[in-house]
Structure formats: C-alpha cells, structure tokens
Write a structure and sequence with these properties.
34% of the residues lie in helices and 26% in strands. The protein is α/β, with parallel strands linked by helices. Helix 3 packs across helix 4.
Length: 456
C-alpha cells in the first residue's frame, strides 16, 4: 500500500488547485478523478457556460450598433461552430490542468475512488494510504421527481445541444437557469422561466435585481414567478410544461425543458454512515473554519462541504485546508467571496446589501452611480449601475453590487473595498484611471455620503 502526504478525492477547481499548491510545498500528493480533470467548472459549468454567454453578448452588442445604424446588419451565426469553439476552449483548459499536475509531480489516478476508514482510499483494485485526505467531490444537478422529469435536460444537456431549440422552458430561476436562459434568448430561442419563489435574485440588492429582471424581459424572456411546475408531457411533436400560478393551471409548449433547480453534494464513494462522517440536514459534509471534518486528518472543500457553491470559493477553501495541513493553524478570517451571475447584463455582488446590513445591525447608506454618466461606458455603449452600501456611523464600506458590462471584473475592486472596510476618507484619497469603468465604483462609494463628483 503506497503512502502519500495528501490524497485528494476529486479533480475540480478546489481539488486540483490544492493538489498543485501542496506539491509545490514538497508534499507527496495523489489526486483521484473518475471523469474529467477540471470538474464541473471547466467541463460542464463555469467555462462552457461563459463561452456561450460571451458569444451571445457579442451578438447583442452588434445588434445595438445596427439599431443605431453604425453597423448595417447583425449578420448570421453558426450555433454548431459556437459549440465547437466551446469544446476547444474546454479542452485547452483541461489540458493545462493536466500539464500543471504532471509538472508539479502530482500522481493522478483515473477511476472512481472510495474512502475507507483510517484515511485509506480504494481505486481500481488498489489501496492508497494518506496522512491527510481532502474530499473535493463537488456536486451534481438536482432533479425534482415531477411526472415527466425524464423528458427534461439538465445544464450539462443544455450545454451539449447540437441544435438551437426554437422554444425552451427553464425550470428554476437561480444562477444556472438565468445564465442559460439569457444566452439562449440572445441566440433567438423563445424562453419561459418558471420559478417557485415570488421573485428572482431575492437575496440581493432589490434595485439591482429589478434591473436584471427588466433587462431579461426586454430580451423577450417570459418570467413566471410564484409558479409551480406540475409535470412535463409529450404532445403534438413537442413538450408541454404544465404549471400552477395563482391557483390556476396553465401550460407552455417547448422543444426542450431545462431543469435547473440547483445542485446537491456528490457523495459517490463516500459512505458517511460507515465512516462516521457527520453531515448536515442537506447532506453536505460538516466542516470547521479550517475545512476539517469530524474525522482526524480528513478535510472537505467545495460544493460537497456546502457553503458558497462557486469555483473561487472552492479555491479559497482548498487554501485554508492546506494551510492547516502544513502548519496546524486555522486561517484567519477569510476575505468576502464575490458572486456573479453571467446574464446579459452581468450581475455581481459582494458583502451586504441594504436589507442584510440592517439585519446585521448597521444603519446603511446606499450610494449609486449609473453607467450613463461614465465616459468609458458611453464610449463602449455599456449600460448599468453600481451600488455601494456603507455604514453611516463608521463610513466603512459594507457591500458592492454591480449590474452591467464587466461587472464580474469590477467586483474584484469591490471585494477589496469590502474586505478592507474602506472609509469615505480612503475612497476620497483614491486615484482611479480615467477613462475607466472602475471610476463608477469610487463614485458610487462617494455618493453614499453625497460626495460623488459626477453626479448632481
């Protein structure tokens, strides 16, 4: 039985990044992956979705220029070539991960692994012993067992469609559902979103969420909130999604029904009961601030451990686990994790909004700044708005929300501001390049106290 310093179960963002970082620190590491390195993110999640979204956004940009008679026509596009390009990008990134793991000396073992007691991992008839084990098995799409659920596709199926559907029903208005709905709508698919909750993005800044919803509706997306999907039926060469809204049944026809109702932890190969591994009510592995489970030398990171189900959160959790493995010390308070929804327009947030700030005991001040008052945004034809929440008493930054072009890039600026609790005085001292979209974040922060220069 070969012994390693660290055995990593799962080659997604959290798993492979921890394996590489540990190997660079001189640790003997083995990584187990049963499918594709890069996990959901690189293969059937973040990256392929963003490829579709990017091409859709490019077409929307061209269409806006046609409307203003700057371009003569929007031209045509090939969905098949878009899908091919998506595959090429994914393959390049997966190849890059393979190269890094090999270069750093990580032993990669392909196959479905199972965790045994005393930090032993079994795979392909072989057993491996770890001084430490990191569970990074991720998550899988959830399925709601309504009648006809077998007729639906999940996000993986949607990303791999060979033909563009003329009509699509999206069951679920969460991040995955919204991103795919926005992209396919730009390609010309008639989209209907059916969401049980009374509103979309309910935990975010209300004004910002309303902007996203308004933009989606302008794209022709039909949004039914407070609606419950009852069943999916076949009929007349199409599918029929039957739902209930305001106590009445109705239906909508579609070529595809996408079930995007969330993801559940992937515990394949992990018999929690036999191991004595503690789980939450939702079957996530319970961990502490250092990502330790209740089992000695066993850690869990990423989606399988609950928390924020984002690749960059898994990166941070992997770093926390490795810090504890190497030093025996728990990491200090972690930086706030930004969240992005890659719709058109893009939505990004970090920290608190006005409602959550009040719940936390703050007296919040809300500053805003519109893209229409920014020179770079006007030059690029970009629209949107920046929101900054500050504490009236201390004048410290509590949260940032951005709706608009490059929001996912600008939010890094906001994340730093929230982490460092930038004060009004510090914002006033800051010098930001001009012209740039980043100027808007500073202006919104100043506006929380009526000090924005380029706002009446």
């Amino acid at each position: 039985m070969e012994t390693f310093d660290i055995l990593v179960l799962g080659g997604g963002p959290g798993g492979y990044s921890l394996a590489i970082a540990a190997a660079k620190k001189g640790q003997k590491v083995a990584l187990f992956e049963k499918e594709h390195l890069g996990g959901t993110c690189l293969n059937v999640g973040c990256i392929p979705t963003k490829y579709l979204v990017d091409k859709a956004n490019a077409m929307e940009k061209v269409r806006s220029l046609v409307d203003r008679e700057i371009f003569r026509d929007a031209g045509s596009f090939s969905f098949r070539k878009i899908q091919k390009g998506k595959g090429e990008v994914t393959a390049k990134l997966v190849g890059g991960v393979q190269f890094l793991l090999k270069k750093c000396g990580v032993t990669v073992i392909n196959g479905e692994a199972s965790l045994e007691k005393n930090r032993v991992v079994r795979c392909g008839g072989q057993e491996y012993k770890g001084k430490n084990v990191v569970i990074a098995t991720g998550s899988v799409p959830m399925t709601v067992p309504i009648p006809g659920h077998e007729l639906t596709i999940d996000s993986t199926g949607a990303l791999n469609l060979e033909r563009l559907p003329r009509r699509m029903v999206v069951m679920g208005g969460g991040v995955i559902g919204l991103e795919l709905a926005s992209a396919f709508a730009c390609y010309g698919t008639e989209i209907t979103i059916i969401e049980m909750l009374p509103s979309l993005l309910p935990r975010d800044q209300k004004e910002a969420a309303n902007m996203v919803v308004s933009a989606l509706k302008k794209q022709g997306i039909r949004i039914l909130t407070g609606a419950k999907m009852l069943r999916v039926e076949k009929g007349n060469g199409a599918l029929r999604a039957v739902y209930e809204l305001d106590g009445k049944q109705d239906s909508v026809e579609a070529d595809q029904v996408l079930m995007a109702v969330g993801r559940r932890p992937n515990l394949s190969g992990i018999d929690a009961e036999a191991l004595g591994l503690k789980l939450s009510e939702k079957k996530h592995i319970l961990v502490d601030g250092a990502q330790r489970t209740n089992l000695k030398g066993v850690y869990a990171i990423g989606d399988v451990a609950g928390g924020i189900q984002l690749a960059h959160a898994a990166y941070a959790e992997g770093e926390a686990a490795l810090t504890h493995i190497l030093t025996g010390k728990a990491p200090k308070d972690r930086a706030p994790v930004p969240s992005c929804v890659y719709t058109n327009p893009c939505f990004a947030s970090v920290g608190l909004n006005t409602d959550s700030a009040k719940e936390a005991g703050f007296d919040p001040a809300l500053g805003t700044f519109d893209y229409s008052a920014n020179g770079m945004a006007l030059a690029e034809g970009a629209s949107g708005r920046v929101f900054v929440v500050a504490d009236k008493a201390t004048k410290q930054t509590l949260g940032v929300t951005i709706v608009g072009e490059n929001a996912s890039e600008l939010i890094a600026f906001g994340a730093l501001a929230v982490d460092k609790k930038l004060t009004l005085e510090e914002w006033e001292r800051m010098v930001v390049a001009h012209p740039s979209l980043a100027e808007m974040v500073r202006e919104a922060a100043l506006d929380a106290f009526g000090a924005a220069v380029h706002k009446a």
